[in-house]
Amino acid sequence: MSWLSEQLRALVTAMQFLTRFKMPDQGPPSPQVLHASVRYYPVAGVALGGVLGVVALFAHVLYASSLLSAILVVAVDAWLTGGLHLDGLMDSADGLLSYRPRERSLEIMRDSRVGAMAVIALGCTLLLRVAALAAMSPLRLAAVALFSPIFARALLLCTMRFTGLARDAGLGRSLAPAVDAPTAVGFLIAALALGWWLFGWDGLVAATVAVLGVSRVCSMATQRLGGMTGDTYGATVEVSQVLLALALAVRG
Fold first, then answer.
1. pLDDT tens across 155-168, in order?
2. pTM of this prediction exceeds 0.90
């Protein structure tokens, strides 16, 4: 397999894993392609952000309600991602907020059943994000819809690269070591540049708020679980997106 062919397969694999976009069926990816796909997570964020930005603009044209526009953006986001990161958020809430011993918390996160903390975390996250987006002007809402998925996945790469892991096996263990520091930092700098271009200082402040929030999630996971898991990685995407929306909704 040539280098270009491998990178194209890696891109398709990243899109298939993170989104519901229709992609060519290329069969089960090899471990090499699976590892290479991680660096394309922010590219999947670009595709998601592009669609969500367009949805926000069309919603503004079709409807007079900013609340309806915000709900449509959040709903389409959940649908296009298959609820992947929301599922990670719910499992993480059940495990991290159970205040059980480490092994029991990890067990709870593996359990497919949904607990009270998961429902509360999901409800608060969706409500806060919708309310924050609804408080924005139509153009700012579209810009946030574009920016959030890109920044969240660029930050995800840094989180995967610079945090430890709680388990010796699992999805997080198989993917996190594939992230190299130059790629992770490079994508984050590019995302910050996009935030500056779209929002000026507001974008950098919002990004800082998101980084601090994600750092807190990582710190909690390290203290309670001994490191990160695939679920907590997914949770950081939702945490960063809701914090970006809240910070960019602040009246200036």
1. 999 999 998 888 77
2. yes
